[in-house]
Design a protein that fits this description.
336 residues, alpha/beta, Rossmann fold, 2 domains, 7-stranded parallel sheet
Length: 336
């Protein structure tokens, strides 16, 4: 009997071809291009040998506990994996994998794009022209801050945050400060960055770019208190996870001009975007498309497929999140 792989939603052909080309697997694709229901998810964990999921599919403890002995891996088509209860998966002997590295350049480029668009009011200018308001050149039309030589505050200096710092330091001559739980010596050497407390970063940065995972400690990291500490010309950029920002507080800060602008690719109640955000003129928004390049999405698909084929072959998946299971795969034991 062929091993059964379920895809909760379509992935690019580059990854799908890796699975279908072997003839070893029965591939089942979720029939609707929308998030599966809890009932469907429960059915999938009971019947599959492997699942390739998107970050919108929530595998909480109650769903994972329904998994049968067949399920060997949940391969998340994303860098983050906060949609999966990793502890529960580990207890069941189910590997959890993600797709790191491949998105680093793409997401950092997008964070840079949001920063420039917010500072130079690109979206506002586009709407202004489309509304037929542009009648003549004016000295004070849609003024915004220059970025060259300003201070960039990076919160989280992993791969993406570090590359964002490199792009801004080498491309725009920006001064780099950062906050992280550990000192980033490589970043300091390459960009003359220096580590500061969160409060120092809020108070000193002209641009604050968020690059942290969603954890209890990072939920609502940007709240009313944090926003009050920022400069009035500050720009907040978020390409990490929506709930890192308390949107109610952000909306008030933008409305009251406590900060200059924001650029968001992710949202607190995603996929819902609250109506008040849509009405703010001083915000640039994209629909969670920071990784939306052909190169990145194809690479993610190939990486997810590689993780699945490794796990189903009794080998160590290259991007194993729950490292506690590494020994089991090295011994060729893929079940619980």
């Amino acid at each position: 009997m062929n091993l059964h792989i379920i895809l909760t939603r379509p992935i690019p052909k580059a990854g799908l071809d890796m699975l279908t080309g072997t003839g070893r697997y029965k591939i089942e694709l979720h029939k609707e291009n929308k998030i599966p229901t809890r009932e469907q998810m429960t059915s999938y964990v009971k019947s599959a040998d492997a699942i390739i999921s998107l970050l919108t599919e929530v595998f909480d403890e109650s769903i994972i506990c329904e998994a049968g002995d067949r399920l060997k891996i949940i391969a998340n088509y994303a860098v983050g994996y906060d949609n999966i209860d990793v502890k529960a998966a580990t207890a069941k002997g189910i590997a959890v994998t993600n797709t790191p590295d491949i998105m680093t350049q793409t997401v950092a480029e997008h964070a840079l794009a949001l920063m420039v668009a917010a500072a130079r009011r690109v979206a506002e200018g586009d709407r202004y022209i489309r509304a037929n308001k542009y009648k003549q050149w004016e000295p004070e039309l849609l003024l915004g801050p220059e970025l060259f030589g300003k201070t960039l505050g990076i919160v989280g200096t992993g791969r993406i945050g570090s590359l964002m710092a490199h792009l801004c330091y080498h491309g725009l001559g920006m001064k780099i400060i950062y906050h992280d739980i550990e000192k980033n010596i490589d970043l300091e050497r390459a960009t003359h960055a220096y580590q500061v407390s969160l409060n120092q970063l809020y108070e000193s940065a002209d641009v604050i770019s968020l690059h942290v995972p969603l954890l209890p400690t990072t939920r609502h990291l940007i709240n009313a208190s944090a926003l009050r500490k920022m400069k009035r010309n500050a720009i907040v950029i978020n390409t990490s996870r929506g709930p890192v920002i308390e949107e109610k507080a952000l909306i008030k800060a933008l409305k009251d001009k406590e900060i200059f602008a924001a650029g968001l690719d992710v949202f607190e109640f995603e996929p819902k975007v609250v109506a008040a955000l849509k009405k703010m003129p001083n915000i640039v928004m994209t629909p969670h498309t920071a990784s939306a390049t052909h190169e990145a999405r194809d690479g993610m698909a190939r990486m997810a497929a590689t993780n699945v084929t490794a796990a189903l072959g009794g080998k160590l998946p290259p991007n194993l999140v729950n490292k506690e299971l590494a020994e089991k795969f090295q011994e060729g034991i893929t079940g619980s």
